Amino acid sequence: MHTKLVILDRDGTINRASDQFVKSPEEWHPLPGALEAIGRLNHAGYHVVLATNQSGLGRGLFDIAALNSVHAHMMKALAAFGGRLDAVFYCPHAPDEGCHCRKPEPGLLEQIAQRYGLPSLAGVPYVGDSLRDMQAAFAAGCEPHLVCTGRHPELAGQSEAPAGFPPGTRVHADLAACVHHLLSVPTAGA
After folding, report:
1. Which of 17, 31, 121, 128 is the most interior residue, by most CB within 10 Å?
2. pLDDT digits (tens, 9 = 90+) for 124-164
């Protein structure tokens, strides 16, 4: 694979998750080391793309303008660390809408493969904080990497996810630890 690509979840992976949803730039708080980690990926030649469920749109809790302002704030914060996201893919649907793009469905990841002209996402790391992130990664053929900064802090210190997670799911303390792992492991075709 010639395109070096890493796909990231947002809430609980890059920034603190909130049960009330992140509805404004003021509610977006980066996790320690996350922005620096994305900068390290960029400097190593990786394209970094976001794939995030944003059901707050479908629930009417915020609008596209609010989501765009959160992402503009995130991009500015990233730039201070020499980092950038090449693209943001999001599912705007509420959980009951039955779409193909809401994780754990693989639709968002399939859209990313199409955008980059990739016949397969095999070997592409997908980093997220939840079981549904790992299920979407596995369904799309990605390499699943779980960070313990969101929904599964109890897994910190483990290297492999417990039963119930897709096979091959790797566990990392946070995004910085995951990026350290990704940059220290030789990749096929890189």
Report:
1. 128
2. 999 999 999 999 999 999 999 999 999 999 999 898 898 99
3-state secondary structure of 49: strand
What pTM value is reported for the model? 0.95
Amino acid at 185: V
Euclidean distance between CA atoms 101 and 32, whole angstroms: 29
Q: How far, in Å, CA of 32 to CA of 165, rounded?
A: 25
Q: Which residues are catalytic?
A: 9, 11
Q: What is the dihedral of CA 15, 130, 1, 78, to 10 degrees?
A: 0
The vertex-172 CA angle with 169 and 177, nearest 5°, equals 135
CA distance 48 to 45: 9
Number of Cβ within 10 Å of residue 11's Cβ equals 21
Contact between 170 and 148 (Cβ < 8 Å): no
